[in-house]
Design brief:
single chain, about 325 residues, alpha/beta, Rossmann fold, UDP-galactose 4-epimerase, domain 1, globular, binds uridine-diphosphate-N-acetylgalactosamine
Length: about 325
């Protein structure tokens, strides 16, 4: 029997991952533990999970609580973070303590508990405005805003704990993950969720800049599968390494807007506003390292992911749409 800890289990990505773990590992008698401080995670994301996991309501900024949550744990998926580039621009200190201190406290707790492997949710924003495309893991990171700096610091800490203490750590650089449960109604929401809800409400979304910026939008199931593969892969292939997790395609915001509008039968044009501070222009991943070392494959395409996401928001927010 092994015990797995998912940090940030009430969040968008963490809750999907916890669900998958229960489906695939729970049956072997393995125990799934989750922690969240509900700063950005939602209690409703745990509704179906709470009675099937060991749950710790805990903030990783609290070193003692982090250590307590690690006790008895063999494997950790470190998903907890205070996400969003613009949120970190507005309030860098709160993001800093959550993302850097929180990650450090978790690593120290994990070291004391003898945790074997940590799979860390890193961010593609670490590449910043590097001139080359597609992004390859060997490129020198050039983070711009505080959030990517913080997520990158976490990566370096992960690598350090592998090199210095022999803890198997694997970093997954996510490229704009989207899908059901992504918070749609915060000023810091990911663009896909935000636009879907705005269109359902009949509001015209605002595109920051000319809309020709591109992202390697990646459906949530791909990120979950990368996590499972990274946890299962032999240490000699993955420990101390960083992998891009994406689809390997670039989609402009204008095009994404049009597909969403078609799926939601929204007939108005977007509003164009000024570019957002700290934003990068383009993002596109080379996913060959993940393919080779993890056996990673894109299981749900961009288009299919959009369809599934729109269906979910329609079901979830149908009352809103009726208003
Ligand atoms: C970054 C990271 C991503 C993840 C995420 C966490 C990159 C490439 N990716 O995503 O890996 O860590 O942060 O939050 O840096 N936009 C609009 N109108 C809106 C909202 C957004 O035009 O109402 C634009 C925004 O200016 C950007 C694009 O949509 O050009 C995507 O924005 P986002 O906030 O969804 O994600 P992004 O790329 O900052």
């Amino acid at each position: 029997m092994a015990r797995y800890l998912v940090t940030g289990c009430a969040g968008f990505i963490g809750s999907h991952l916890t669900e998958k773990l229960l489906e695939t590992l729970g049956a072997n008698g393995d125990v799934i533990r989750g922690l969240d401080n509900f700063e950005t995670g939602k209690r409703e994301n745990l509704a179906e999970l709470l009675n099937r996991i060991e749950f710790f309501e805990c903030d990783l900024r609290d070193a003692a609580a982090a250590a307590e949550a690690c006790r008895g744990v063999d494997y950790i998926f470190h998903v907890a973070a205070r996400p969003s580039v613009p949120r970190s621009v507005k309030d860098p200190r709160t993001s800093h303590t959550a993302n850097i201190d929180g990650t450090f406290n978790l690593l120290e707790g994990a070291r004391a508990a003898g945790v074997r492997r940590i799979v860390y949710s890193a961010s593609s924003s670490a590449y910043g405005n590097q001139p080359g495309f597609p992004r390859v893991e060997t490129m020198v990171p050039m983070p711009i805003a505080p959030y990517p700096v913080q997520k990158l610091a976490g990566e370096f800490y992960m690598k350090s704990y592998w090199q210095v203490y022999g803890m198997e750590t694997v970093c997954l650089r996510y490229f704009n993950i989207f899908g059901p449960r992504q918070v749609p109604d915060s000023p810091y929401s990911g663009v896909m969720a935000k636009f879907a809800l705005q269109m359902m409400r009949g509001e015209r979304p605002t595109i920051f800049g000319d809309g020709e910026q591109g992202r390697d939008f990646t459906y949530i199931d791909n990120a979950v599968s990368a996590n499972m593969l990274a946890m299962a892969a032999p240490a000699e292939k993955v420990a101390g390494r960083v992998f891009n997790v994406a689809c390997g395609e670039r989609h402009s915001l204008n095009k994404t807007f049009r597909i969403l509008a078609e799926l939601l039968e929204f007939n108005e044009e977007p509003i164009y506003g000024p570019s957002r501070a700290g934003d990068i222009r383009n993002s596109l991943a080379d996913i060959s390292s993940a393919r080779e070392a993890l056996g990673y494959q894109v299981t749900v395409s961009f288009e299919e992911g959009l369809r599934r996401t729109v269906e979910w928001y329609k079901r979830q927010y149908s009352e809103v749409a009726m208003r």
